[in-house]
Amino acid sequence: MNDHWALSNAPWLDSGPTSRVLTLLSGGGEEARVVGGAVRNALLNLPIGDIDIATTALPEEVVRRAKEAGIKSVPTGIEHGTVTLVVEGKPFEVTTLREDTETFGRKAKVSFGRDWVGDAHRRDFTINALSVGADGVVHDYVGGLSDIAARRVRFIGVPKERIEEDFLRILRFFRIHAAFGAGEVDRDGYLACIAARSGLATLSAERVRMEMLKLLVADGAAAACVAMADSGLQQTIVGGVVYTGTLAAMIAAERALDLEPDAMRRLAALAVAVTEDARRIAARLRLSNSEARALDSMGHRWWRLEGMDEARARRRLYRLGEGPYRDRLMLAWARAGTGADAAHWIELARLPQRWTAPKFPLRAADFIARGVAEGPQLGHVLTLAEDAWLAADFPLEPGLLASLADQAVTRLTRDPKP
After folding, report:
1. How far is CA 369 from CA 106, 388, 405, in A?
2. Cα gap 331→317, rounded to integer Å
3. Half-sphere CA count of 113, side-chain side, radius 13 A
């Protein structure tokens, strides 16, 4: 099967760096096409990110032509047929058509070929196997065009076989559906993913992390996570209980606040009830240090933010800082349930936009002047004074500050700490 469809209104294809690469690698008996996600997104009228090129030209020929044209080439995966060309500052991953000679997961042995049909059948999903040449004609050998029209994510060929080639395709199935699909997930693919779920244990944490974080920020993340939870896949990934209702509430909260989707917020909503959950997930997914800190912060006594008035919220904002305050508050909001007062939560979440926490005005010198010696006692009295300053709602009047300092020194003498 080779269905054709003309891709119209594609200036990125007709001119500019993409056109230059296609022209460079076509002719002289060779052909080049844009493949994969760029074609899919163009047909769905979605933003186009990276543009990948497939070609019949061997890697050495790609490098030779690039050199003659004065284009930088980087052998990013030349043993697998991939060369990156940099044109006008934009990178293009160019890969020679391939065919598997032996298949065992990501370490499949490949040989270079010239068969566009065979190359399409090597790919994962029908909507990712489309290609388009400089003439705008979309080539479809696997039924991807009809699946694009139906917003259906379907494995190429037998789902079980595609999954066994790389078990990461289980997660990619749900992630691609969340981003580009509509309605229920494809049943044959879904059942194959369930049957093969033990294969997830063979994947590196880094690869799982990458797919999960992409899935969580997709438009259809809530429904995809429900499907994964119903099959037991989600619990396998995070190693504990999942809360799909809280995830849906977090997504609604982000939209109410006009915030961009945030993977850590959504991961916390899905799987973090206490800090122990955050630490387990950080280890299982090999989160970065900043990601792990964000997850841990959200899980730390988020329930104490329920029922806050604005005075208490200001103290929390002062202690946590704007980002952690907002994210922990949003987790508390998402977990508050359907009876939550959305207007009140929104008001608290937008507190940093109308109020900036002042700096604590008392300094070590204020207490040294009152006879407190440098050392641990000085740190303790500063803590006592800061706590009292917060409780008094951030006063800045000199007389009141002096009184707070005196009271802190008095408390220190009553309750000295090393």
Report:
1. 69, 19, 11
2. 15
3. 13
User: What's the rounded Cα separation, in Å, for the pair 177 and 198?
Assistant: 21
Q: Which CATH class is domain 3-150?
A: alpha beta
Which segment of 2-16, 97-111, 185-199, 345-359 scores lowest on mean pLDDT? 97-111
What is the Cα–Cα distance from 3 to 308, expressed in whole angstroms? 60
Q: What is the dihedral of CA 61, 7, 172, 122, to 10 degrees?
A: -50
- Burial pattern 16-50, b for ≥16 Cβ within 10 A else e, equals ebbebbbebbbeeebbbbbbbbbbbbbbeeeebee
3-state secondary structure of 52: strand
How many Cα neighbours within 13 Å face the side chain of 357? 20
DSSP string of 95-124, one letter each residue? EE-EEEEE-BTBT-EEEE---HHHHHHTSS
Distance of CA 191 to the CA centre of its chain: 26
The candidate with the shortest Cα–Cα distance to 267, out of 247, 293, 241, 286, is 247
d(CA 97, CA 101): 13
Compute the distance between CA of residue 18 and CA of residue 92 in angstroms, rounded to an integer: 8
Domain ranges of the chain: 3-150, 157-227, 239-357, 364-414
Longest dimension (CA), the chain: 91
**What's the pLDDT band for 269 if we cut at 50, 70, 90?**
very high
Calculate ∠ Cα 81-144-48, nearest 5°.
Answer: 65
> Residue 398's closest CA among 368, 366, 364, 357?
366
What mean pLDDT is predicted for residues 378-392? 96
Rounded distance, CA 298 to CA 307, Å?
17
Name the pTM for this structure: 0.88
Region 195-216: mean pLDDT is 96
DSSP label of 239? T
User: Using an 8 Å Cβ cutoff, are 28 and 115 in contact?
Assistant: no
Q: Which of 22-26, 78-82, 157-161 has the lowest mean pLDDT?
A: 78-82
The CA distances from residue 302 to 258, 268, 297, 334, in Å, are 22, 11, 9, 11
Query: How far is residue 194 from each of residues 22, 203, 218, measured CA to CA in Å?
Result: 40, 16, 21
Q: State pLDDT tens for residues 115-132.
A: 999 999 999 999 999 999
pLDDT score for 3: 59
Question: Is residue 250 within 8 Å of 334, Cβ to Cβ?
Answer: yes
- For residue 290, pLDDT over 60 is answered with yes
Amino acid at 18: T
